[in-house]
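Dear all,

This email documents one entry for the complex benchmark we are building for the journal club exercise. For each entry we list the sequence lines for every component of the assembly. Then comes the predicted three-dimensional structure of the complex as a token string, followed by one or two observations. Please use this as the template for your own entries, and keep the labels exactly as they appear.
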Amino acid sequence: MPTSTTASSSNSPSPAEDLSTQEPSTREPSAQDPRASRVAALACGAIAIHIADIARRRGWPVDIHPLPPLLHNHPHRIAPEVEAHLGGLAAAYGKVVVAYADCGTYGALDEVCDRWGIARLQGLHCYDLFAGAERIEEWLADQPGTFFLTDFLVKSFDRTVWRELGLDRYPELRDDYFRHFTQVIWLAQDPAGELREEAERVAARLGLPLTVISTGDGALESALALLLAC
Amino acid sequence: MTREEILTGLYEQTLVGNGPEVLSLTEQGLGMGMEPSTLLFDALIPSLEEVGARFERGDFFVPEMLIAGRAMAGAMERLRPLLADTGVETIGKFLMGTVKGDVHDIGKNLVNIMLEGAGFEVIDLGVQVAPEKFVSAIEEHQPDIVGFSAFLTTTMPMFKANINALEKAGLRDQVIVMVGGAPVTQEYADAVGADGYAADASATVKRAKDLLAGKRALVGAGA
Ligand code: B12
């Protein structure tokens, strides 16, 4: 059984993916296709790298198919986008999983997963996957004005937050967005790395104090193990 | 500049969120003796409606909505006292707040601007509004409608908590309850026992007016 883990782009569909249909597919993957014995993880781009790391570490035969993380700002597009890729993957792979939490789809992703008989990661969003839902709830109950960062968000802050919110063009809007926020919590997968300075810079740009919580990716690993066992 | 040009300019400059220009055109229009309500109903409100439609279509995202909303709010500051002076009647009182535990407020603020533009008196309690605070504000301000806004899956249950608190305080029958926010649906609104839901700011104005007319007709009929 192949153990290598590759992150392949879903932008260039393979011939098998061209067979994609909108209907849950009953096609069996071909026995000759090496993917028949592998798992396809259709993953949110914001956690794809972590999933690839974990799968490599654990020797899981998983191929990651990432979707653009910016979909988070338009959550109504997530479920249709996931569904559009499921046909092709289900036709080629022995197993397909959806490496998304609910992610602001408010149940729409569950409907797609149910329709296809496919499981997704537990939780509401990736903060739950790194720190556990209870801790997130506690932090929000303690300070509702908490803005969470993950390593991905720290790295991509300029693009995924600042520019998306138009703050590059209209810096005066910062307070319209963040007036009621009181703190930034960085759920750090790798707090010892070079991202610390970057996280501090992000918090300073938001004018908020930063708390660093080292989460690693252990909780995501457990969630992924559960998902693959489904 | 002709009156037509003022209205076109106001519409276009609100659409692109050019606050200073919107204010300047408002001043010019008023200087030419144009009615505040004309500026509002024939330019500002249609422009913000178009902004909402573009957001719906995916042509605009949040920042474009925000700057347009700010531009319109700036003009409203100038027009509000004049509208009151010229006897434009307040059509109802709307108490609004983002529920406890939630600090998303952009959608709520846009709804407020449109409600105000449509002639509602809006009292905004801000964000993270606890049920007790809604209750005491309803007692104090006696609004016709109270609106709850929520954006997180974890804060939506506050709608029910708020409605329970109103029931407990004996206020539920006095006030129309509307709910909204990105995750909210008509089904969810029905399930928590709200009177009305709307998906965007323009729809909120329409629904609020309908609900109010319905209630007034009932009261008028002695029900
Ligand atoms: C902008 C935004 C933010 C801004 C908020 C700024 C602010 N002051 O409001 C920032 C960047 C700060 C932010 C922070 C967070 N956010 Co946020 N955010 C969004 C985003 C992208 C857009 C929301 C918005 O403003 N839309 C624009 C307005 C105009 O539309 P609207 O909100 O739907 O409002 C309209 C209608 O709903 C209606 N309406 C609104 N209120 C009312 C009330 C009544 C009574 C009625 C009738 C109608 C009505 O009319 C409005 C006008 O047309 C959404 C994703 C999305 N596209 O929905 C995520 C989203 C809501 N956020 C989300 C999350 C997770 C967060 C954070 C936890 C992220 C983090 N990194 O920490 C924090 C939470 C903060 C907190 N402690 O509460 C999730 C929620 C997921 C969930 N399951 O709960 C979403 C769905 C993103 C996602 N896909 O994961 N966010």
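Observations: The interface with chain A takes residues 17, 58, 61-64, 66-67, 70, 100-103, 105-106, 126-128, 153-154, 182-183 of chain B (CB under 8 Å). Chain B is about 60% helix and 10% strand.
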